[in-house]
């Protein structure tokens, strides 16, 4: 079954409002629903903010039979072409806040794990096609950098560009990716840009987040038609 996941209410509420035959599943700390969206059976969840919540929720989704995972939400744009409202479709995900460099590992690498996790080509293609159908937005395919940090500085943006070649910064994608990779389950992350992760990102985020979350939701909706 297709699973659709967001971190915050604003990222899934528009989809939840249209979920048919809705069944609410109770897992500790997570809101998870089963139902039908545009004729497609789905699991839909708001997993909470950060990598731990994302990993936990992904595990619950897999236990409920998720065979594909689409993450939808907002991010800080890091790629220089990105403006508020634009869309990033993940090529792969990294954990930018993992640092075991003192033991000789590359920045972002969890010892024994892959340095990044690649998104599924078919889900990526479906997301890009759907994203191009959203009026007035620029679509960037690129690396999603995840960490338990809200990035709000020029130096933070420069580090994510230089050390990781990131397109955007957010707080969940790589955790979803890591869990999906362990289970062999395809995933893609779709993020609309709420801020550009530099000075003032906190102000832009508060102003634009609810509005631009709609763009990512439009992409998911567009994907459903083609899945
Ligand atoms: N989500 C939206 N904007 C973000 C930022 N600047 N840093 C991390 N996560 C975000």
Architecture overview:
- This protein is an alpha/beta fold and 227 residues long.
- The protein has one domain: Rossmann fold (3-Layer(aba) Sandwich).
- The chain contains six helices and ten strands; from the N terminus they run βαβββαβββαβαβαβα.
- A five-stranded mixed beta barrel has the order 5-9-8-6-10, surrounded by six helices.
- Strand 2 and strand 3 (30-37) form a beta hairpin.
- The longest helix is centred in the last third of the chain and has 26 residues, at 201-226.
- It is globular, with a radius of gyration of 16 Å.
- The model has no long low-confidence stretch (mean pLDDT 95).
- Bound molecules: adenine.
- Adenine binds at residues 74-76, 150-152, 169-171, 194-195, 197, 201, 205.
Report the strand count. 10
Ions, cofactors, ligands: which are bound? adenine
Q: According to CATH, what is the class?
A: Alpha Beta
Question: Could you spell the SSE succession in H and E letters?
Answer: EHEEEHEEEHEHEHEH
Sequence stretches where pLDDT stays below 50 over 5 or more residues? none
Strand percentage lies at 25-35%
Can you say what the CATH homologous superfamily is?
Nucleoside phosphorylase domain
Q: What is the annotated CATH architecture?
A: 3-Layer(aba) Sandwich
Summed up, the domain count is 1
Number of helices: 6
Instruction: Give the strand order of the largest sheet, numbering strands 1, 2, ... along the chain.
Output: 5-9-8-6-10
